[in-house]
Amino acid sequence: MAQLENKVALITGAGSGMGRATAAVFAREGAKVVAVDINESAVQETVKTITAAGGEAIWVRADVSKGPDAQRMIEAALDAYQKIDILHNNAGIFLVRFLEDTTEEEWDRLMGVNLKAIFWAVKFAVPYMKRQGRGCIINTASTGGFLGQYMTPAYIASKGGVVLLTKSLALDYAKHNITVNCICPGAVETPMLRKHFADSPEPETAMQRERQLVPIKRFLDPEEIAYAALYLASDRARGVTGTALVIDGGSLAGYVE
Ligand SMILES: NC(=O)c1ccc[n+]([C@@H]2O[C@H](COP(=O)([O-])OP(=O)(O)OC[C@H]3O[C@@H](n4cnc5c(N)ncnc54)[C@H](O)[C@@H]3O)[C@@H](O)[C@H]2O)c1
Fold first, then answer.
1. Does 114 lie in the same domain as 55?
2. CB atoms within 10 A of CB 1
3. Contact present, 182 and 140 (Cβ < 8 Å)
4. pTM more than 0.90
5. Which residues are known catalytic residues?
6. Cα dihedral sign, 251-253-255-257
7. 64: Cβ–Cβ under 8 A, 6 or more apart, which residues?
8. CATH code of 20's domain
9. Nearest atom in ligand 1 to 193's CA
């Protein structure tokens, strides 16, 4: 039996990378997917692929950092499917910049998309989940939620915030049967990672060096993260809340030769 039969899952950042892979895996497992992204053509493509494979999905264009957009995406899910079982706050942006070179706009934008978006989505989704008597929230943090990283202070601060916001929300909503967890990916082969290397002075060297630092000597595949999200979204994980699930090829375990 499919693991998400009759479930409605809203996934942000579903137009690319891990969000797109998770949307596809959730749909294959029987979920009705509400795919949200700021990039309309990208999210339309995700939905096209899902429906072509026989799955069920709709798309919503929204900037998750904006309250009215967040409200609209939750309402779109309720209009289409009358419930939200799984809210996956996955959209995120990256910034490589020393703090003194970071503008206030860049700081606010990054915090808006990576952290405040969770504030908005939870604010609008939780009242419905409480009424349903059940819910599942999965946030995307990063291994950077546990460890500093060179030249990415705003990003790392946002992801550290996601880890502890997750734990705090888990405590607040446990009595309402709403689980709140986050996934913490290491380096995953997505457009975000590829752009990061493309922006460095010697992309190929930077990529090889970074790959060698991962104990399993490869970057993760977006589908490997999607299956971690699937576990947290499934009924098998109803007893799991407040956890930060690390999927990083061993990177946080320590150093390797
Ligand atoms: N790729 C990695 O190595 C890695 C590692 C750890 C954590 N993460 C996190 O995983 C998540 C997904 O990253 P990815 O690598 O798949 O990135 P990606 O860039 O491939 O995809 C991110 C998607 O989010 C969308 N998005 C950006 N801003 C948005 C906004 N304001 N509103 C709605 N949608 C918006 C983009 O259009 C894009 O489709 C992010 O939160 C990222 O920080 C990535």
1. yes
2. 5
3. yes
4. yes
5. 155
6. negative
7. 12, 13, 36, 38, 70, 73, 89, 91, 113, 117, 120, 121
8. 3.40.50.720
9. 1
pLDDT at residue 257 above 90?
Answer: no
* Ligand 1 cavity residues, CB under 6 Å: 12-13, 15-19, 37-39, 42, 62-65, 90-93, 113, 140, 142, 185, 187-188, 190-193
Average pLDDT, the chain: 97
Same-domain pairing of 29 and 146: yes
Retrieve residue 87's tokens. 């809210």
Both 42 and 166 in a single domain? yes
Beta partners for 188?
220
pLDDT digits (tens, 9 = 90+) for 224-242: 999 999 999 999 999 999 9
Entry field: residues in the chain: 257
The alpha carbon of 17 and the centre of ligand 1 are apart by a number of angstroms equal to: 7
CA of 48 to the centre of ligand 1 (A): 20
Long-range CB contacts for residues 166-170, cutoff 8 Å, separation at least 24: 166/139, 166/141, 166/242, 166/244, 167/242, 167/244, 169/122, 169/137, 170/241, 170/242, 170/243
Ligand 1 centroid distance, CA of 195 (Å): 12
Range of the domain at 105: 8-185+221-247
**Mean pLDDT across the stretch 94-123?**
98
Which position has the token pair 């309309």? 40
